[in-house]
Each structure stands twice: as structure tokens, then as C-alpha cells.
Design brief:
Blueprint lengths: L4 H11 L3 E3 H6 L4 H9 L3 E5 L2 E4 L6 H12 L4 E2 L1 H7 L10 E5 L10 E5 L8 E4 L2 E4 L1 H11 L2 H13 L5 H11 L6 H11 L9 H12 L6 E2 L3 E3 L2 E4 L3 E3 L4 E6 L1 H4 L2 H15 L4 E6 H6 L1 H12 L4 H8 L1
Parallel strand pairs: 5-6, 13-14
Antiparallel strand pairs: 1-3, 2-3, 4-5, 7-8, 9-12, 10-11, 12-13
Helix pairs in contact: 5-6, 6-7, 6-9, 7-10, 8-9
Length: about 325
């Protein structure tokens, strides 16, 4: 049994998060007057010029993005902060509707940010829940143009930690972008600081601590370094400084909540201190509100001679 034009249009819209373009509706067999009646009767609602939504469909981010994509045309892709949110990057839970397009058509909207680019390589585009978006590596390059460096670093660390990109891919992206591309300098600094053998931070809290340490020019620790006593695994602290047998642990409610986690953290600190390691614990609250106090504690512990060192010097 064949479908009527309105049934075809509704079927297509439901595949597209409840939205349909005027051109698509016409292709389904609806007439211009039929579309106007649907709008007048509020069966459909206008989201953009020539783009409509089924009244009652979920007003989700996916619907907003698909509608904007239909409005901007097939050359458009979700990009920058909106793409970062699609990839789940840390620091980008909420983002504006943001697109890149190779089209020269002038489109303006108060709620959609449009970046016009010369080209988008096929390798730079992925599809997420039916909507084209820049891939993780290209998204990090674009973020440098619209986000502060500390927020870009949170996204970079997340992408590295989750295996969504790697340092060689980032270097290739930067080489292809060349000099003078907006955002490239920020990303290049962060990539060069890490190097090819870099081990990503284990959490956003660890990244914030890293930023504070770099800002105050503290010695650079090893991320996620596994400490053993012989063949027995002891701990994998946030940062390890082998020259001082000193570690830093960052406590964050998001990453250390729950009684079991707190107990594990306490057991790990006990295991380290009982073997002569210095353990400096810092909270996210202190890193944000009193970084100078944390730095003072760091240098105090760094310059402190352990009792065990005094004893071995005597004997």
C-alpha cells in the first residue's frame, strides 16, 4: 500500500529528529499550499527559513543541529564547540549551535554561528547520530580559534585519554593547516609540550593541577606512573617526581566520590607513605581558589628532608 505525501513527509521527518526541509517536503509530493496549511494549523512549526519541525517532536539538541544543517545546506558540518560537545570532550557539556561550511551563500541567524572555510577534507568529517561533524582532530584545531587555551587543553586531554586522536595525528593536522590559521598556535603549543611519548592525564582534575604547575613553573611530574615495590604494584598516582620520591594526588568530588573510592585513595596513600614516598594531596577547590597556597605546600614538601634520609646519612 503506497503512502500519501504527508505520510512520506512525516516518515522522513521522524528519521531526521523531527525536522524536514521545504525541498524535501516537495519531493515527498506535498504542494506549496499543503505546506502552508500545515504551518497555519501549527501541525508543523517553522525553525528556519524553509526548515520545519513536527509540532510535538522533542526540542532536543539533535533536532536543533539537524534543522540548522538542513537550513545551511549539505556542505555544512557541526564544528568548533558544538562538535566538541558531540564528541563528549571535557569542558564542553554545553555549546552554541556552531557550523562550518564551504558554501558561499550568506546565511545569518542569531542562534547559529557559521564559519566559512575554503575546504573540508573527507578525513576531517564524521557522522554522529545522522549529522555530519568535524572529527576529533580537526575539532581540536578549530577549538583553538574560539576557546581559551585552558579549555582547549581539557578537550585535548580527553581526546588523547579516550583514544579519539593521538599526537602524530595532531601534528599532521597542524602541518596541513600551516601557519597563520586561527587556533593553530594554541594547539601547537600544547602538542609540542607533550611530545610523542606523552601519557594523558587520568581526569580533568589532573589537567587543572597540571595547568597550575605549569603556570607557576613547578617541576614537571610523570602522569599516571605505575609504582612497584619489587613485583608488587603499589599505586598509579596523578603525578610522580622520581628525583624526590614525591607524588601529588588531586581530589575531586566528580572523580573521587563514594565511600569505596575514598577508602581506595586512603589505602593508596598509606601504601605510599609507609614505603617512604612523600604524598601531597590537593583538592580542586584549592587549585581554583588558592593555587599560591598549593605551590607553597609543594615547595615545602619538595625541600623537606625525610627522617629516613637523615637516618641513612648518619649510618
Amino acid at each position: 500500500m503506497s503512502r500519501t505525501p504527508i505520510q512520506e513527509a512525516i516518515r522522513l521527518a521522524l528519521k531526521q529528529n523531527g525536522v524536514i526541509s521545504r525541498a524535501q517536503a516537495l519531493d515527498c509530493g506535498l504542494s506549496v499550499s499543503a505546506i502552508q496549511r500545515l504551518l497555519k494549523g501549527e501541525v508543523w512549526i517553522r525553525l528556519h527559513e524553509g526548515v520545519y519541525a513536527l509540532n510535538g517532536s522533542d526540542d532536543s539538541v539533535d533536532r536543533k543541529l539537524f534543522a540548522a544543517h538542513l537550513w545551511l545546506g549539505p556542505e555544512s558540518v557541526v564544528s568548533h564547540r558544538a562538535a566538541a560537545a558531540r564528541h563528549g570532550f571535557d569542558g564542553f557539556d554545553f555549546a552554541p549551535l556552531e557550523f562550518s561550511t564551504t558554501s558561499s551563500r550568506r546565511r545569518g541567524s542569531s542562534d547559529v554561528i557559521v564559519h566559512r572555510v575554503k575546504s573540508l577534507a573527507r578525513r576531517d568529517v564524521v557522522t554522529i547520530r545522522g549529522i555530519p561533524a568535524t572529527g576529533p582532530t580537526r575539532t581540536l584545531l578549530d577549538l583553538g580559534a574560539v576557546s581559551p587555551e585552558n579549555r582547549l587543553e581539557l578537550a585535548l586531554e580527553h581526546a588523547l585519554r579516550e583514544g579519539k586522536t593521538c599526537i602524530p595525528k595532531l601534528r599532521d593536522q597542524l602541518t596541513g593547516a600551516g601557519r597563520g590559521v586561527r587556533g593553530a598556535a594554541k594547539l601547537r603549543r600544547l602538542v609540542d609540550w607533550r611530545g610523542d611519548d606523552y601519557v594523558p592525564a587520568g581526569s580533568p582534575a589532573q589537567v587543572v593541577c597540571m595547568q597550575v604547575m605549569r603556570r607557576f613553573r613547578l617541576p614537571r611530574g610523570l602522569n599516571e606512573y605505575e609504582i612497584f615495590d619489587g613485583t608488587e604494584f603499589i599505586a598509579r598516582p596523578d603525578f610522580y617526581f622520581p628525583e624526590k620520591d614525591m607524588v601529588i594526588e588531586v581530589e575531586s568530588w566528580e572523580w573521587h566520590q563514594g565511600r569505596q573510592k575514598l577508602d581506595r585513595d586512603s589505602d593508596r596513600r598509606t601504601a605510599l607513605t609507609s614505603r617512604g614516598y612523600r604524598v601531597l594531596t590537593v583538592t580542586m577547590t584549592r587549585l581554583r581558589n588558592d593555587p599560591e597556597g598549593f605551590v607553597a605546600d609543594f615547595w615545602r614538601m619538595w625541600n623537606t628532608t625525610l627522617v629516613s634520609e637523615v637516618r641513612s646519612a648518619r649510618f
